[in-house]
Amino acid sequence: MLKNVRNKWLLTCSLLVFAIADASASGDAVSSFHVGVLHPNGMDFLGYSVEKHMDNRLYWYYTIGVPSFLAIGITHYNNRDGNGLTATFGAGLGYTFYAAIAYQVKLGKKHFLKLGAAGTIATYYPFAPIEKSYYVERTGIIAYEYRF
Questions:
Q1: Can you give the CATH number for the domain in which 44 is found?
Q2: Is 0.70 topped by the overall pTM?
Q3: HEC states along the chain?
Q4: How many domains does the chain have?
Q5: CA separation (Å) from 18 to 46, 49, 72?
Q6: Whose CA is closest to 44, among 103, 104, 92?
Q7: For residue 21, what are the domain limits?
Q8: Which among 115, 116, 69, 62 is positioned nearest to 90, based on CA atoms?
Q9: What gap in Å lies between CA 98 and CA 77, rounded to an integer?
Q10: Which residues does 125 contact at the CB level (< 8 Å), separation at least 6?
């Protein structure tokens, strides 16, 4: 019964996020696909993000990806459209909180590489049972991002 409820909840969340993604892709929102060893927006290996401009250097985002599935957060860019430092703080499905700092390298008009480090604190992860009530992980970041 619990597994069935969780599956319905995950399906509902995923449909809701896709609906929001479609609605927010207009205006000042920037969409992107990313692949690599843990992208700062969601700590994913593969994913889709939408970033919305908040002020001069701050953007809020949401990400659909693998393995974190859903994540939301805030990113600070030194230079959003060029080379520079980025700092991210977010939360993902499963009570996972993370922070990352990366250097963004502009490879082309819509192509970026992010290199850095991140830390994750998780209190519960629904797809991978853990022995402790929480765990802390530190990792490196190398990710490619294509913006559109």
A1: 2.40.128
A2: yes
A3: CHHHHHHHHHHHHHHHHHHHHHHHCCCCEEEEEEEEEEECCCCEEEEEEEEEECCCCEEEEEEEEECCEEEEEEEEECCCCCCEEEEEEEEECCCEEEEEEEEEEECCCCEEEEEEEEEEEECCCCCCCCCCCCEEEEEEEEEEEEEC
A4: 1
A5: 16, 11, 14
A6: 92
A7: 2-147
A8: 62
A9: 17
A10: 94, 95, 96
What is the rounded distance in angstroms from the CA atom of residue 124 to the CA atom of residue 13? 17
Say which residue the tokens 């693998």 belong to: 66
* Assigned token pair, 44: 């994913």
In the structure, what pLDDT confidence band is assigned to residue 1 with cuts at 50, 70 and 90?
very low
pLDDT tens figures, 25-76? 556 788 999 999 888 887 788 999 999 888 888 998 989 888 777 888 999 9
Distance CA 135, CA 42 (A): 17
